[in-house]
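pipeline: protein-struct stage 2 | run 1193 | RNA methyltransferase
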Amino acid sequence: MKNINQKFLEYIILHKDRIPHFHKDFPLILFWSHRSGCTALANWFFFQIGLFPEAKKYNDFIHYYEFWVYKNNPNYIQAVHSGLLEAKKHVCKLVRNPYTRAVSSFLLLADNPYASPQWDSIRKCFYNDKHSKQGISFKQFLYYVQTLGSNSQVIDMHFSQQYVQGEEAFIQSYIPLEDFNKQIPKIENEYGLIKSDLTKLTSSGHHRAHKMVYTGSYAELSITDEAFPRFPTYASFYDKETMDLVTEIYAKDFEMYPYTKGIF
């Protein structure tokens, strides 16, 4: 691949810490986004290159090994850089329906220690006091993301849009998370990869989908309210206003990825 600006390539690789999965002997380069099946994809990647047991032994949370060990190699970024320029590997990206992803991003605020700095920012925005104990609803969360901008420098990586400006110069195909369990076996067959047990690799302690059973109208109920169940269904967070907000906020994801506005 010729005539690629080096700063542009670096931007694609490093944007929001979404460093692609790469190995010199693995036939694909895998792009991904936070809250879009990134744990399942990382599990599968490390399984395919023979490092899954080592990664899980290091820490059950696969991303610690991913960033603190595997991608912390001083030569890793240059290897990804060279791999993209050589254009000998198939480049794909795991993507997710923006409507379900927006809910997943919001629910990060429910019980994740990672979200403490984000709560500070959110409470400063809404209540002018980062020490406030007040929470926010899904609808308020969307207005927060809209205010900061889904592609801004200041928005948290878990809340920002999936699309990275210019990624289409490298990415050849997209894997919808909703079709993960069908697409991965096809990829394994096509490239002669090891047959994986996706039941094991897609199991994660921080996944909530199986707990999301409460129906109702939860678009405007604060996530810190005692009446907020653990957890509502995806559909329970949507009324016309929240649907329109997600459609507008993540417009670029709808434009670039195989999803239809108004359907989740």
